[in-house]
Design goal:
The protein has about 325 residues and is α/β, with parallel strands linked by helices. It contains twelve helices and nine strands. Among the domains are: about 80 residues; about 110 residues, Oxidized Rhodanese, domain 1, CATH 3.40.250. About 45% of the residues lie in helices and about 10% in strands. Helix 1 packs across helix 12. The protein binds fe (ii) ion.
């Protein structure tokens, strides 16, 4: 499988004390980079014959896959964590007080963990523990101590204490024996429970109803395959003058003047428009075009998403 890029969840221009440059670079280079690494590793894994591959190659790739996957998931959660005013809601205050003594105590602990990582690396994550019915603050060092949002349904303990008494150093015999002892009905039941946990919430833009949106990967692949598609970059003027780069094969048009340039478009070929991140400008332009009778949709993740998947781009100056 290939992992698909998610739209940046917070509106970057609404953040206080965090520059667009910082957020864009983080989204495009670090989040996008993790996703690109993840897909490259996945591709490599899919081409392996696991039965014949040396164990150091398998463990290296699977370790790298876990790191890239968790980096991808945690960055999505990170961007989805911002965009508010930092004020704990009354019901969250109740929950934090129940699990940490008070909101302040939770905040002190969470901050201290963040401070302690200064000069190092890792994540501080507030995590729901379904087992214990409570929240904890956890580290996810190097991205990979736990899968964010994961609910495990089958576990094999590979610490030596789990097999040494019976199998000595023969770990393979232990694994085979373990697999012969798995209670698959219990695994199926746990799967049923885990599947009820909702996925991360998508970006909600109720003001645009069910306006059709396309993923950046689909647009990129259609353009690369030479399929008929009219792709228009409609970032506001001030964005274009600040960034000075544009996607290959795409024309920029001022969203303010859609009434003029729409006459250059063909009605029998689908139109895709996008703005900086996939929010209101691109959506509004797509709606205007649809009202004028064009087969128009918007590209969900915008110009930043185009760069985050590493699609071709060139400078305009
Ligand atoms: Fe990051």
């Amino acid at each position: 499988m290939r992992y698909q890029l998610k739209q940046i969840h917070c509106r970057p221009w609404t953040l206080s004390g965090l520059s667009l440059k910082l957020i864009e670079s983080h989204y495009e280079n670090n989040y996008g980079g993790a996703l690109r690494r993840l897909n490259a590793i996945t591709e490599q894994l899919e081409s392996l014959d696991f039965a014949k591959t040396p164990s150091h190659v398998i463990s290296g790739l699977k370790r790298d896959e876990l790191t890239a996957l968790n980096s991808t998931l945690l960055h999505e959660l990170y961007f989805a964590s911002m965009g508010g005013e930092g004020k704990v809601t009354p019901s969250m205050a109740e929950v934090l007080t129940r699990d940490f003594g008070s909101v302040q105590q939770w905040r002190t602990q969470f901050s201290a963990m963040g401070y302690a990582l200064g000069g190092g690396s890792g994540w501080v994550v507030l995590t729901w523990m379904p087992r214990d019915g409570r929240l904890i603050n956890q580290y996810a060092s190097e991205h990979s101590q736990s899968v964010a949002g994961g609910v495990p349904i089958l576990a094999l303990d590979m610490f030596e204490h789990a097999y040494h008494i019976d199998f000595g150093a023969n770990a393979k015999a232990y694994v085979d024996t373990f697999l012969r002892n798995v209670d698959w009905q219990a695994v199926e039941d746990r799967y049923g429970d885990a599947a009820k946990v909702s996925p991360p919430r998508p970006v909600v833009q109720p003001e645009f109803g069910d306006l059709p949106g396309m993923g950046v990967e689909e647009v990129r692949d259609m353009l690369a395959a030479g399929k008929p598609l009219q792709v228009i970059d409609t970032r506001p003027k001030h964005f274009v003058s600040r960034q000075q780069d544009i996607a290959d094969g795409v024309t920029w048009r001022d969203p303010e003047r859609v009434g003029e340039w729409m006459n250059e478009l063909r009605k029998d070929v689908p139109v895709v428009v996008y703005c900086a991140y996939g929010f209101h400008v691109g959506c509004r332009t797509a709606i205007t075009l649809r009202e004028a009778g064009f087969d128009a949709s918007y590209m969900k993740v915008g110009h930043s998403g185009w760069k985050a998947v590493g699609a071709p781009i060139h400078m305009t100056t």
